[in-house]
């Protein structure tokens, strides 16, 4: 007779919670699920707070509505599973701008994460090299090649396109630089197209054609009431035992399963489980795997992360343009790398008192020293730079908040997906009841993290079923 399963999920971010929920939905009745979260708060980078009496996101603000392969994204599917579909709202203002040459210019249409699919439109911000459409007589990439985004685009479209278009777009998402980031990881659709297209222009257009979007179809969504409602609903629906302030310090094999060492060194708790999902960043994962799976640990432990700070200001009736926000190329010399006009972008956040919520993102990979400033200094610098970019003195904020995310955004160098695949192959062969999930392995964004957690849960179920437990 099979015994009842006991599964530990280490990490209470959205990937870990998605794993716990999928285990609850698919594992046999009576399966015990325990989620261990080192901090006191679930959700990872999903965190809804309050500013000036209203809700505001202090982390991720939205999710993609569509999956790159077609159909709804994993985030939307999760929202539906939790009965929250009626809360989905979309931006009411979608046009964003680039802060270049001391002013704001609309982001040109026809780009794919900043890479032009229409050279004439791109030229309003950045001039492509005269040989941008040259056909080299063979595909841009070989079947197994991975290169940096900047390396590919500079060679085909020139420096200005990278510096003024691609780099700020990638910087806004990853806080990294185009010259360092993996094409296959950050822009998988373009990487696939580049394995057959002879020109970068053709590859961009092929990638866009592979995922057509109906006119007026929303790209992004969020939840009225904040994304923390998604976190809370997932935690509740999973039926898992949630252990906050519970750091898992060690993982050892018991032969039949796993033993977790939890809590302080002086008074540790030992917990035996049948399977483990590690849904924490790559470095703590590598530390936990160091003794039980050293080869896998080495494969994922070298991933680096960027730190960022999000500064949100509540401004009384500021003169803001009808934009969702703007991105800033690193060449502009500003501390701000991106800004979102929350109460302009999201109609459900608009307030009758005219108070506007404006958020700025600070911190690029390799520039962590800038984040050592005090909160007051960061807020004052952001206010000053916003006024300069908008060319209008903004009113003094009536409230503000600085959210620091240390080591928040993975920096995927070329070859990242192959390294992760190799590590998972080793782990699966040696320890099928031990899996990894999250942004450190599969990419950033709520849908990717949700899918990563769900896939990890499915692997655990398959392994436990195969073991006859």
Overview of this protein structure:
By secondary structure, the protein is an alpha+beta fold. Among the domains are: 6-45 and 225-303 and 413-467, FAD/NAD(P)-binding domain (3-Layer(bba) Sandwich), CATH 3.50.50.60; 110-209, protoporphyrinogen ix oxidase, domain 3, CATH 1.10.3110. Helices cover 34% and strands 23% of the residues. It contains 16 helices and 22 strands. It has helices at 14-26, 74-81, 119-122, 149-157, 159-174, 183-186, 188-194, 200-210, 228-238, 282-289, 294-300, 342-345, 375-390, 416-430, 439-442, 446-467; strands spanning 6-10, 32-36, 48-51, 54-57, 63-64, 88-89, 96-100, 103-106, 111-112, 115-116, 220-223, 241-243, 248-253, 258-262, 269-273, 275-278, 304-316, 325-327, 336-341, 355-362, 399-411, 434-436. The strands form 6 sheets. Strands 8-7-18-19-20-17-21 form a 7-stranded mixed β-sheet. Strands 12-2-1-16-22 form a 5-stranded parallel β-sheet. The protein has a 3-stranded antiparallel β-sheet with strand order 5-11-6, covered by helices on one side. Helix 1 (14-26) crosses helix 16 (446-467) and helix 2 (74-81) crosses helix 16 (446-467). 49% of the residues are buried. The mean pLDDT is 95. Pathway: Porphyrin-containing compound metabolism; protoheme biosynthesis. Its cofactor is FAD. This is Coproporphyrinogen III oxidase. InterPro entries: Amino_oxidase (IPR002937), FAD/NAD-bd_sf (IPR036188), Protoporphyrinogen_oxidase (IPR004572), Zeta_carotene_desat/Oxidored (IPR050464).
């Amino acid at each position: 007779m099979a015994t009842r399963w006991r599964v530990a999920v280490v990490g209470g971010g959205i990937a870990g919670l998605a794993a716990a929920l999928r285990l609850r939905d698919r594992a046999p009745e009576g399966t015990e699920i325990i989620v261990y979260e080192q901090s006191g708060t679930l959700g990872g980078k999903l965190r809804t707070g309050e500013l000036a009496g209203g809700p505001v996101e202090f982390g991720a603000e939205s999710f993609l509505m569509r999956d790159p392969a077609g159909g709804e994204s994993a985030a939307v599917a999760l929202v539906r599973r939790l009965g929250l579909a009626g809360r989905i709202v979309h931006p009411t203002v979608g046009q964003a701008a680039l802060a270049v040459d001391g002013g704001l210019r609309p982001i040109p249409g026809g780009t794919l994460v900043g890479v032009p699919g229409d050279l004439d439109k791109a030229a309003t911000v950045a001039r492509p090299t005269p040989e941008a459409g040259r056909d080299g007589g063979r595909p841009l990439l070989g079947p197994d090649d991975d290169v940096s985004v900047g390396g590919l685009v500079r060679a085909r479209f020139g420096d200005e396109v990278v510096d003024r278009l691609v780099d700020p777009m990638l910087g806004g998402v990853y806080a990294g630089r185009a010259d360092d980031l993996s094409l296959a990881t950050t822009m998988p659709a373009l990487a696939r197209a580049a394995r057959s297209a002879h020109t970068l222009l053709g590859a961009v257009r092929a990638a866009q054609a592979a995922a057509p979007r109906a006119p007026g179809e929303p790209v992004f969504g969020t939840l009225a009431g904040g994304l923390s409602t998604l976190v809370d609903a997932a935690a509740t629906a999973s039926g898992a035992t949630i252990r906050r302030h519970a750091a898992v310090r060690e993982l050892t094999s018991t032969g039949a399963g796993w033993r977790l060492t939890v809590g302080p060194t002086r008074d540790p708790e030992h917990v035996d489980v049948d399977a483990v999902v590690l849904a924490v960043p790559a470095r703590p994962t590598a530390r936990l795997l160091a003794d039980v799976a050293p080869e896998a640990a080495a494969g994922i432990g070298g991933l680096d992360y960027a730190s960022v700070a999000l500064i949100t200001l509540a401004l009384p009736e500021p003169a803001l343009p009808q934009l969702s926000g703007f991105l800033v190329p690193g060449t502009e010399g500003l501390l701000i790398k991106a800004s979102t006009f929350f109460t302009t972008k999201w109609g459900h956040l608009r307030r009758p008192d005219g108070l506007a919520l404006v958020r700025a993102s600070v911190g690029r990979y390799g520039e962590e020293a800038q984040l050592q400033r005090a909160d007051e200094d960061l807020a004052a610098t952001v206010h000053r730079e916003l006024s300069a970019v908008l060319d209008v003195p903004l009113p003094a904020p009536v409230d503000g908040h600085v959210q620091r995310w240390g080591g928040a955004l993975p920096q995927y160098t070329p070859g990242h997906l192959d390294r992760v695949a190799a590590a998972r192959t080793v782990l699966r062969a040696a320890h099928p009841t031990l899996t990894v999930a999250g942004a450190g392995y599969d990419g950033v964004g709520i849908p990717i993290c949700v899918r990563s957690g769900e896939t990890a849960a499915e692997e655990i179920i398959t392994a436990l079923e195969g073991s006859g437990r």
